[in-house]
Amino acid sequence: MIQFQQVSKRYPGGFDAVKNLSFEIQTGELVFLAGHSGAGKSTLLKLIAGIEKPSSGAVLVNNQNVSRLGRKALPYVRRHLGLIFQDHKILYDRSVYDNVRLPLDIVGFDGREVKRRVLAALDKVGLSGKEKLNPVALSGGEQQRLCIARAVVHRPAILLADEPTANLDRDYAHDILELFKSFHQVGVTLVISAHDETLMADYGRRILRLKHGEFTA
Amino acid sequence: MKHWIRLNALALQRTVAAMVRHPLNHGLNLLVIAIAAAFPFGFYLLLSSVAAVTAQLPVEPQISVFLKPAAGSAEIGGIKELLAQDERVANARFVAKDEALKDLQAKVGSDDLLAGLTENPLPDAFLVTTRSDASAAALDALKTELAGRPGVDEVQLDSAWAQRLERLLALGRGLLEVIVVLLAVALALITGNAIRMQILTRRDEIEVAKLIGATDAFIRRPFMYAAAVQGLIGGLLACGIVVTALYWLNPAVTELASAYGQRFALHLPGPLEIGAVCLVTTLLNLVGAWLAVWRHLRRFF
Ligand SMILES: Nc1ncnc2c1ncn2[C@@H]1O[C@H](COP(=O)(O)OP(=O)(O)OP(=O)(O)O)[C@@H](O)[C@H]1O
Ligand SMILES: [Mg+2]
Fold first, then answer.
1. Does the reported pTM lie above 0.80?
2. What is the distance between the alpha carbons of residues B230 and B193, in angstroms, rounded to a whole number?
3. Coil, strand or helix: which one is A3?
């Protein structure tokens, strides 16, 4: 489902964020991405979503070379992805409801379907009844849940979560990971990054460990 | 198709909502657009009003051929024959100097003016009316030809003022073209800038939308609607400004014209002209908005 072929990313300025990475993630797999701050976790996830282009090598998603896609084609690939950003990218000028509906508006769902799906997604992440609130009124953990709801509302095949458990206490972090596990159980392919590896250990899943842009054992 | 209609309906609905939410900002933009469009439109109406009047003016030019005092009857006869045969001439009348003096006396209304004169200072003359379809070049040629005849002292082309007016109108039309082009560019820039402001207030939303799979068209759509609405209302406002100005100016213009014995009024814009103005402002707004969105979206993949 996701395949990296000798992928390197050099940012303007000459810094190599990831170096010569090759790996494959199968359809329906749940994979953790671990590594210190600055190891290249976010860069790797951005490469999958086509937000960054590799300096060399190829990134394949659904057998499509994401790095080669043009302006016109890329949006349609991204609609198969659910993205949870490290910096959240919540829009604070609108309600929780209107934040979550954005991916549906982009695709052009009709009003009733939008309502049904948004409420279902909010219910799934445990934010029922908070749809009219402004996101600033949510706690840190609840804001994270809002991001998850927005990422899954259009039922993507692949979910990429960048440090979804950052700044959360251990129990709350486990609640969030349980939520991801439930998506995994219905067949979604997941890549979840975190710098705290001990959290992942309990799940017995494959862990990709990054150190200064390279995999370690 | 259904999706496409829904996406458009949604975008239009949001556009109108945004305009209602920030009436002052949008109002000011509209005013600037309206004034920029009102200038060339008003100028155009002024020109077409003047052009309509000049089209009705009797443009059959007169040529006065003044003869030398020494000109004899043979020379006068030769000129008369020439004028009778010339295709450019509609009518030629010989005015003897005595007749001219009588005319002048009648006009002045007294003998005093001429009392001191021992002899008639006026020359014999031909008053020539040329055909109205004769070109300015043909008349010039005729003038030179007549001036070269023996016995002719001076030839005056009285239609010069009509030609001058015609040239002035041509200059006005040229000026109009320049103004239209300049203000069209200005209008596209102004609206582009207004749209750029709207883009900046929604930059976060645009970024997120781009990241999660919005097409450029999706991002562009609400701004294009905003520009179209802005252009349409701006165009209508421009017409309103012009019509108000004409109503206000017309009594004074009519009065001025009647003082010169002319019936003249600035004509009000018709529905076709109003439609054209709105179409142009709308298109220019769309161009400005498209450029503004394009510039902003360039930074995203
Ligand atoms: N846009 C950019 N321009 C230049 N350098 C960048 C850019 N983005 C990231 N980097 C650099 O690339 C390296 C990897 O960054 P990345 O964000 O992928 O790390 P990370 O593993 O996600 O770290 P963290 O856990 O702190 O989020 C860092 O050293 C960072 O400074
Ligand atoms: Mg990161």
1. no
2. 13
3. strand
Residue A125, amino acid:
V
Split into its structural domains, chain B has a count of 2
Question: Is residue B124 domain-shared with residue B268, that is, in the same domain?
Answer: no
Domain ranges for chain A, please list them: 92-155
DSSP class of residue A78 equals H
Position of tokens 């969105």? Answer: B293
Which ranges of A108-201 would DSSP assign to H, the alpha helix?
A: 111-125, 140-152, 170-185, 197-201
Q: Measuring CA to CA, which residue among B23, B50, B114, B46 is closest to residue B262?
A: B50
Do B73 and B180 fall within a single domain?
no
Q: Check CB contact under 8 Å for A102 and B215.
A: no
Q: From CA B123, how far away is CA B65, in angstroms rounded? A: 10
The helix (H) or strand (E) run that includes residue B12 is helix B2-21
| Secondary structure of B41-99 in HEC code, one letter for each residue | HHHHHHHHHHHHHHHHCCCCCEEEEEECCCCCHHHHHHHHHHHHHCCCEEEEEEECHHH
Chosen domain end from B158, B186, B205: B158
Q: Which residue, of B132, B158, B184, is where some domain finishes?
A: B158
Please indicate, yes or no, whether residues B275 and B189 belong to a single structural domain of this protein. Answer: yes
How far is B200 from chain A, CA to nearest CA, in Å? 14
CA–CA distances in Å: residue A26 to residues A91, A191, B180, B199: 33, 11, 62, 40
**d(Cα A158, Cα A101) in Å, to the nearest integer?**
18
Measured CA to CA in angstroms, residue A69 lies from A58, B61, B190, B236, B301 at distances of 11, 73, 35, 44, 10
Give the residue, by CA position, lying nearest to ligand 1 atom 30: A38
Task: Check whether residue B237 and residue B288 sit in a common domain.
Answer: yes
pLDDT digits (tens, 9 = 90+) for B111-154: 666 666 777 778 888 888 877 677 777 778 888 888 888 888 88
For residues B113 and B31, membership in a common domain is answered with: no
Cβ(B198)–Cβ(B223) below 8 Å: yes
Length of chain A in terms of residues written:
217
Q: Provide the percentage of residues in chain A whose pLDDT is more than 90.
A: 83
Contact list in B for residue A51 (CB cut-off 8 A) is 211, 301
Chain A 25-44, residues with CB within 8 Å of chain B CB atoms:
none
Would you state the structure tokens that stand for residue B26, as one six-digit string? Answer: 């949008």
Structural domain containing residue B138: 62-158
DSSP state of B133: T
pLDDT tens digits, one per residue of A177-186:
999 999 999 9
